[in-house]
Amino acid sequence: QPQLVESGGGLVQSGGSLRLSCAASGFTFDYYTIGWFRQAPGKEREGVSCISSSGGNIEYGDSVKGRFTISRDNAKNTAYLQMNSLKPEDTAVYYCAASLGFETLNDPYDYWGQGTQVTVSS
Questions:
Q1: Strands of 26-103, DSSP E
Q2: In Å, how far from its chain's centre is CA 24?
Q3: For the segment 38-60, what is each residue's pLDDT rounded down to a tens digit?
């Protein structure tokens, strides 16, 4: 059974940092692009970042460029999102997702995690 489990969310002050993890199981992790998405209350889901299966292609949403860094460790079946210089507007539930055969945030994703809450206080 394919599964993605996010962790690392929490409450942080503006300007602080968090590192999210996405642990995968039940599918061949290193075949899949991994994406991070977020959704704030009352807002549409937003693509944050994605990384191709080999790590060679990376995309960031405009709102996080220069502050967030995506990475993956295929040996550990885990992807990461390092979030620095956090702002209150980064507050959202963050989801990781896996896509087979695609490499951008706008492509379809096959598997989704349950999400982890990130709250940035001002």
A1: 32-39, 46-51, 58-60, 68-73, 78-83, 92-100
A2: 13
A3: 999 999 999 999 999 999 999 99
